[in-house]
Write a structure and sequence with these properties.
Length: about 260
C-alpha cells in the first residue's frame, strides 16, 4: 500500500513508517517464537497459552494500520475518545503478547530440543526479548509524561533515543537463533559451539548495554562516548567472530 500510494515520506507523526516497522518486526518475532515453541517440550495447555498471547501482535498491528488509514497518529494519541480507545486497545494487545513471551521464556528454562548451543541461544534470546519488552514499557511510561508528545515520546534527556535499545532487545533472539542454526549444520564440537553462542550473546549484551547507557545519558545514538564506543566495538567483534567461525565451518561441512 505504501508503494502503491507513491512511496511517500516515512518521516513525521503520521506516515507508513510505523505500520511497516511494526508489521516487519512483528512478523520476524512471531516466526522466531514459533521456532522457539517448536524446540520446547510439548505441553498443549502452555503451548496454546503462549501462542494465543503472541497472536495478539496481529490485532495490535491492525490497529496501527487503522490509524494510518484514518490519517492520525497511532501512538500516544488522545485527541478524541476513539483515538484514546484505540491506543488503550493497542496497549492491551501488547500486554497479552508480553504474557505469551513470558510463558515461552519460563518454559525455555527447561528442556530445549537440539544441541546445548541451541538451548543457550534460545534462553539468552528470550532474555533479550524480555528486556526489549521492558524497554518498550519505559517508552510508554515516558510518552505518558506531562511534557511528552508523539514526537518525543521515546526521547530521554536532550537526544537519547529509547527506540534503539528497545529494538536491539526485541531482535537479539534472531541473531542468536541464526547462529545456532548454522552451528547445527557444522561439525563444530558441542562445547566449542556453546562457547561461540555464549560469545555472541555476550557481545549482543554489550551492544544493548551501550545503547541503553547512551540513551539515558541523553546522547544521540551516534554521539558515542569513549565508553560506549569501546563497548560497541567489543560487542561487534564478539558477535562477528562466532559468525565467521560458524560460516567457515558450514562451508567446510558442505564441501565434505
Amino acid at each position: 500500500m505504501w508503494l502503491s500510494s507513491g512511496a511517500p515520506s516515512l518521516v513525521g507523526p503520521v506516515t507508513w513508517r510505523k505500520p511497516i516497522e511494526f508489521g516487519l518486526s512483528g512478523a520476524i518475532i512471531t516466526f522466531s517464537l514459533a521456532w522457539v515453541l517448536g524446540r520446547l517440550q510439548r505441553s498443549p495447555l502452555w503451548d496454546w497459552a503462549g501462542a494465543i498471547g503472541i497472536l495478539f501482535l496481529v490485532p495490535e498491528t491492525a490497529l496501527i494500520d487503522l490509524q494510518q488509514w484514518r490519517g492520525v497518529p497511532s501512538h500516544f494519541n488522545f485527541q478524541t475518545d476513539f483515538d484514546g480507545a484505540v491506543f488503550s486497545a493497542m496497549a492491551g494487545c501488547i500486554g497479552f503478547v508480553a504474557i505469551g513471551i513470558a510463558i515461552l521464556a519460563l518454559r525455555s528454562l527447561g528442556r530445549v530440543e537440539g544441541p546445548p548451543a541451541t538451548g543457550l541461544a534460545v534462553r539468552a534470546g528470550m532474555i533479550f526479548l524480555l528486556l526489549g519488552q521492558v524497554l518498550g514499557g519505559l517508552i510508554v511510561a515516558n510518552g505518558l509524561g506531562p511534557d511528552s508528545t508523539v514526537a518525543n515520546a521515546s526521547i530521554i534527556g536532550a537526544a537519547g533515543e529509547l527506540k534503539v535499545p528497545h529494538a536491539l532487545g526485541l531482535h537479539g533472539l534472531q541473531v542468536l537463533a541464526v547462529l545456532a542454526l548454522i552451528l547445527e549444520r557444522t561439525r563444530v564440537f558441542p562445547r566449542a559451539a556453546v562457547t561461540l553462542v555464549a560469545s555472541c550473546a555476550l557481545g549482543y549484551g554489550l551492544l544493548l548495554a551501550a545503547a541503553t547507557l547512551q540513551t539515558y545519558s541523553g546522547l544521540g545514538p551516534l554521539a558515542l562516548t569513549p565508553l560506549t564506543l569501546i563497548a560497541a566495538l567489543v560487542g561487534a567483534v564478539l558477535i562477528a567472530g562466532p559468525y565467521l567461525r560458524g560460516l567457515s565451518a558450514l562451508r567446510r561441512a558442505s564441501l565434505a
